[in-house]
Amino acid sequence: MTKKKNMKKMLNVLTAKAIIVSSISGAVLTPSLSALAAEGQSVVGAASTGTQSEGLLNFNWELDSANKLKYWISQSNVIASYNTNVFTKAGNVYTNADGRVKITVNGADSFTLTNTNTSHTIAQNVVTEIGKEYTISTYIQQNGVPGQDRAELIVGDKTIKPTQKEERVSYTFVATSTSIKISFANVSNGRDNTRLATFGNIYAGKSTMQIAKDNAITNARTAVNNLFENQNPNGKIRADLTQAEIDAAQKLIFAIDSLSSRQPINNDLKKAQTQIDERNAQGKAELEAAENAVKALFNDDDVTGTIKAITSQEEINNAKELVAAVKDVDKKAELEAQIAEAQKQLDKKVAEEAQQEAATNAVKALFNNNDTTGTIKDMTNQVAIDKAKELVAAVTDADKKAELTAQLDEAQEQLNIRTAKIGVSQLFNNNDVTGTIKDAVTQAYINAIQNLVNEVTNPAEKAKLQADLNKAQAQLDAKAEAAEDTQRQEAAKKAVEDLFNNNDVTGTIKDMTNQVAIDKAKELVAAVTDADKKAELTAQLDEAQEQLNIRTAKIGVSQLFNNNDVTGTIKDAVTQAYINAIQNLVNEVTNPAEKAKLQADLNKAQAQLDAKAEAAEDTQRQEAAKKAVEDLFNNNDTTGTIKENTTQEAIDNAKELVATITDTDKKAELEKAITEAQKQLTERETKVEVTGKGNTFTLQQDRYLTGTYTGDATSMSVDINGKRYYGGTVKNGEFSFYALDKIAKETDKVLVNLHGADKSIQTTFAVVVKSPTKITSSAYKLKDSNITGTFNNTDITKMNIVVNGKTYWGGTVANGEFKFYALDKITSATDEVTMNFFNANNELIISKNLTITAPVVTAGDITSATLAVGDKNIVGTVTGDIKSFGVTIDGTTYNGGTIAADGTFKFYVADKKFTADSVITIVAYDKSKNTLSEMHIAVSK
């Protein structure tokens, strides 16, 4: 059977299935079947254009005498109220006078609306039954994500809008009138563009639920009528009718939800039940006679045993006649099965004797002269062998069966060898296995022949056949590879050209070209194996990428500003994250002039954002300071009295917050309120018990133990590790005690006791003892970027350096480590440099001189460097202090490389794009990244 005939046969089967489904669900045929019918292929049940569909819509596209659609309303509007469009028909395309509106009929229930600078809607008013439920659905495909331009399905006053370019939309409703309008709209906003909307696989008819309700009555009526002869419920029941059929029909009646529809059908069912009851009574005697006749066929009347030796065909036939008259279907089937067993046993007796003779003759007939030790006949084929196998399989004698099976195996092997030889030779022109394969040879053909070769078991024959088949496979593989790379080149070339206007790769990219399109083109180019073609396409892709990077960066920068005006102000929504994202886009641009302009505009946005941030931060600082000051006072009234729980710490915290404000007026206002709070707190504390606080005592640095106090303290003592010392001065809220010779180590326990006028201790508090401040700086060599080191004093919060008398502030001081950028400040190994460390109050804690060492002078050369197209590494040799490399390939720089002890080096480039025309430079560095040598590399082919 030809390929075309196979296709037609398959389509006929599929269409027949579609008709069955359509009759159940009410759905119309799929457009693909109608399309095949239009191509001239015979398709069973395909609806033809110009006929009324099974659903509500009439898919007849006939024009009337005025050249308007006869069965559709067509109007260039969002709503089709009037049939105004006049068309000219060409094939399956209908076009209006100005060419702005087209209808393309794709099939029985599929069409495409194409309109330019206008909307277009077609509609039909269809007949409905009040109270019935209907479903309208269609699969919509449109050339763009729907927005102002969109396709719509309109049912009555309900508009269904898809949200995707391709989507099935559906609407189900219950009819409230005898008609409703169904519209298909292609909406355009009127811009200079062409809209396409395809409405396919359209269904307009009763819903699945409604069809089920209607079918319930039909199914029940059909089932009851089928109980009777000629489907006449006023006549006799069928002769073969069973109780099960009546019960099944009763269930279908129960499924009808309307009593008025159910009652007449149920009355007819009762007639059938009455007749079958009468029939069952008459059949009892006939059943007993049949049972006795069947039992008589078997030994001891045991129908599960063996038949009697005297049982004949005539006796079996007589029993069959009696069983045929039995009305009980189940009992009849049981008796027929028993008769069948008797017949089987009788047939086996008769057939067994003839079976061996038939099998022997069939095997001999495969061989020349019926000699099973010779060669098979030219006419012997698989059908003949299979028929002989069937006969041998039926032989029950084990020895005879084994003998015949061995002869069959020999015949099969001879046939397999002959078939495989013919199959292999037919792959080649003129059946010459030393020549070339035929143009029509495919992988499927070779696979089929491979299966034939696999069936051969003779090693020598099989090896020769496999060798010839391998030749054919090799030739087919070579053909396929050549064709595939040509296709890959064409696909890649088209993808790259599609990125540019007018497909001119020397021009500018299209407005619609995006990163997805470029990436897809890159994937196609990567698949090309022709090196020259691949290099050409890669260069064109690089140009498209650069143009896209510039365009994307320009859009990104302009969108940071109001009205996209880079000379104006930035938008309120701009954040640092936005600017950082745009900076990444600018970084992708390689054109120096374009990049410089973009960076300048981006810097403007950054400056404006920084200014906004500073203003917002000061407002926040003002709010925090204002709240802290008001919290010192009752009812937050800064003109009143301070709260009972207001402490010096709270006032100090408020002072710190106020100190950060940059608005001088607001700062002065809050400082005035703090002064008042301090005044009130001081006055209150003179009336309370003595309190005190000691300053941290630093070993080997402090001579006196100092601190502050409040209240009426007149003298003091100090407990050091349990031993008390008297002395010191206590005056004007401060105390001092000479402790250089008393406090020896950081673990000493030191307590300060403040005494009143009566010498009694008023308060005792501990003093923290800590080791002296220690600064450890890392070795600093001239040309180092940073001065670094560690410290052990947590009071240190900032630092400066003094270079030859000039002071520089800055650096980072945190977590016991410091770092200060000094590359542009220290220029000579003889410079005098001092590091100064301060606390948060800018009080100097410690100073330390910096030792500067002169840098080690390094030298080295790249003595050779080579690279060829296809190489994984640049290889060569170096001398001196070279430790790493930088390689620039067509403007892109990569760092790395490895150097062996013998001075040879490698730099991995297999993952980097380069061609024989690439411009490649390699630069060698010492361990401090100083440039020692540079060389240009010519890529060899």
Automatic annotation (TrEMBL):
It comes from the Bacteria. Residues 216-278, 286-347, 416-478, 549-611, 621-681 form the Pesticidal crystal protein Cry1Aa domain. InterPro entries: Big_15 (IPR046746), Pest_crys_Cry1Aa_dom-IV (IPR054544). Keywords: Coiled coil, Signal. Residues 1-37 form the signal peptide. Pfam families: Big_15, Endotoxin_C2. Residues 325-359, 394-421, 462-489, 527-554, 595-622 form a coiled coil. The keyword Coiled coil applies. Residues 695-760, 774-853, 860-940 form the Bacterial Ig domain. This is Bacterial Ig domain-containing protein.
